[in-house]
């Protein structure tokens, strides 16, 4: 349809979520003569190579050249350049502490994952052995992802309780249903301990479309609703939740664009206050694999779209949340003492 039109303008706030392969459809639709073949584009900019299941195009090559090409067809304006009146956004990586037994179990899986990765990346190993290590590694990574989220629930709940005690109205994102269930239970308990009228809302993949808007309206307008518990994939786009002044990621997502869109549920037109973004990470968990992957993908996309490596996730600080034993200062107190500033 686009190719048949006399004129075409493509509008998007997120040209690519993680890799150059996501740009091809847009480029070819308005500049078909530049790259008439997907294979040609993939070989030039996606480090294309044959894998076990066919061509793999998850890589990135010649990003400076791709950036020059994009300048011919793309007018790029960053949100900071257009919405100059929008308050600041501040990102913080916060390390939560896992229970000792859980930490040991996750460490064993992480060590096993690293061993498989070494085999998969070792050119001296046979191709069949490397492929088998990749398949086994993917299965193990999925299990590690789910278990890490489950084991973080207690520490996440303790961290969120300090935000609730401080009166902060915030969004908390997670991926797995079991994690969302645990967070909702912890948040509800903390809210009732502070104010019996305080409540939270929840939006996930099972929430009907009509109810989603009802929950958004409640969060935006009801002062008794302090927290929104949200699925990062089901509620990360299309919602305006500017009543929140903080966004918390209880779990990380593998795709940086998904996380950026999620945090912008609060950081958008209508926001009157600066927005603090909290990435809750646990050392020795799947976060050790996801965080570097996010930084790498953001660097790739930054090079392709803007001609620079960007600032990764733009975290200004790394914070270790203290264990919330009796007599230990809360995380909010830790912030006020200069650890995070707001």
Short note summarizing the structure:
The protein is α/β, with parallel strands linked by helices and 342 residues long.
What does this entry look like structurally?
This protein is of the alpha/beta class and about 350 residues long. The chain folds into two domains: about 1-75, no CATH class; about 85-95 and about 150-325, Rossmann fold (3-Layer(aba) Sandwich). It has eleven helices and nine strands. It has helices at about 25-30, 40-45, 65-75, 80, 100-120, 125-165, 175-195, 210-220, 255-265, 285-305, 330-340, and strands at about 50, 55, 90-95, 170-175, 200-205, 225-230, 245-250, 275-280, 315-320. Helix 3 crosses helix 10, helix 5 packs antiparallel against helix 6 and helix 6 (about 125-165) runs parallel beside helix 7. The termini are far apart.
């Amino acid at each position: 349809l686009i190719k048949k039109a006399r004129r075409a303008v493509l509008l998007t706030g997120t040209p690519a979520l993680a890799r150059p392969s996501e740009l091809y459809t847009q480029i070819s639709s308005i500049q078909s003569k530049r790259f008439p073949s997907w294979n040609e584009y993939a070989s030039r900019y996606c480090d294309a190579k044959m894998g076990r299941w066919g061509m793999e195009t998850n890589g990135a090559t010649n990003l400076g050249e791709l950036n020059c090409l994009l300048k011919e067809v793309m007018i790029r304006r960053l949100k900071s350049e257009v919405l100059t009146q929008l308050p600041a956004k501040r990102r913080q990586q916060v390390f939560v502490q896992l229970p000792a037994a859980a930490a040991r179990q996750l460490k064993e899986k992480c060590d096993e994952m690293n061993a498989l990765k070494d085999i998969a990346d070792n050119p001296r190993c046979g191709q069949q052995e490397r492929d088998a290590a990749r398949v086994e590694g993917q299965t193990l990574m999925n299990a590690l992802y789910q278990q890490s989220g489950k084991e973080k629930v207690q520490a996440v709940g303790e961290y969120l309780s300090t935000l609730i005690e401080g009166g902060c109205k915030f969004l908390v994102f997670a991926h797995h249903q079991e994690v969302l269930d645990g967070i909702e239970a912890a948040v509800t308990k903390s809210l009732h301990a502070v104010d019996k009228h305080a409540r939270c809302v929840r939006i996930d993949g099972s929430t009907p479309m009509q109810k989603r808007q009802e929950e958004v309206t409640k969060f935006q307008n009801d002062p008794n609703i302090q927290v929104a518990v949200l699925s990062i994939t089901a509620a990360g786009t299309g919602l305006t939740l500017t009543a929140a002044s903080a966004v918390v990621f209880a779990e990380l997502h593998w795709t940086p664009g998904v996380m950026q869109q999620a945090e912008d549920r609060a950081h958008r037109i209508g926001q009157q206050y600066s927005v603090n973004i909290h990435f809750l990470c646990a050392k020795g968990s799947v976060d050790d694999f996801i965080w570097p992957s996010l930084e790498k993908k953001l660097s790739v996309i930054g090079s392709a779209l803007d001609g620079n490596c960007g600032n990764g996730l733009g975290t200004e600080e790394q914070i270790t949340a203290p264990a919330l034993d009796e007599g230990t200062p809360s995380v909010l107190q830790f912030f006020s003492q200069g650890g995070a500033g707001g």
